[in-house]
Design goal:
The protein starts with 5 loop residues before the first helix and ends in a 5-residue tail after the last helix. By secondary structure, the protein is mainly α. It has 14 helices and no strands.
Length: 334
Amino acid sequence: MLLKNTQSKWVGLVAAILLMVLLMCASVIYGYTNTSWRTAIDSFTNNNGSNEHIIIQTVRLPRALIASAVGASLAIAGALMQTLTKNPLASPGIFGINAGAGFAVVAAITLFSVNDLQAFNGLAFLGAAVAAISVYAIGSFGREGLTPMKLTLAGAAMAAMFSSFTQGLLVVNEAALEQVLFWLAGSVQGRKLETLQNVLPYIGIGWIGSILIAGKMNILSMGEDVAKGLGLNTGLVKITVGVLVILLAGGSVAVAGPIGFVGIVVPHITRSIIGIDHRWVIPLSGVLGAILLLAADIGARYILMPSEVPVGVMTAIIGTPFFIYIARRGFNGR
């Protein structure tokens, strides 16, 4: 743990917020179309309708805001899941929640030609809920009950199943392939601000709820028996955390598609910096998640310029080595 006292933790949190804001500004300015800081400022203070001003306001600003919101949501969801399941590999991607939400949206597009953004939101939440409940139920079977390893295997199985179903639907309906392929890779490119506005109430509840429940998560992390001995209603806390994860993960998938590894990488980095107190872990994970996705999105613009790599590919490149490291270290270290 790098930051050991309250004052240093506040300094670290504020520094992370400033870095996030700086990356949001960089996301608005840098890309294929050459713009400057001055151009970005003029687009808001003295908009002349030029191509550069239109791109900044209608393309890059929504993109920066969406990347920040999605990154924060996935990171917080991962932090909650890792504590709830006592599994260092827990995240919406690994446990099949993203895949379930993605399958629900693709099924609606391919089978029923649904194109309504509000419908996408509801379907993403439904798919996330079905996947989460299924993984928890499957992981609880057997005499040993719920264990980190069984949860991981159940999550991998559900993720594979929903991914296979998704691919099968796209094979049957090739017309829908182009419409959803880039979305399935996980991307914030071309997303409209309206899409974020539709899910913001839900992920906003997820953010606020996660901060409010942070103290109870500290007690729950001590173990089931200790938490019950201290008077914590563990069942209610688990249900609440499950709902929060569904809101955060479902909202993220509805906006940007299934983006993996953010929920694994960020909570571990956060705990190495600030410790295991969830009153600090939750907000810092949110900020660092936004930083990671913003940085990945900016990098995705330059690798194959003028084409762009989906940000989900970038997070996979970053997260895969980290995932292997955590898996090799085993389930004992937190």
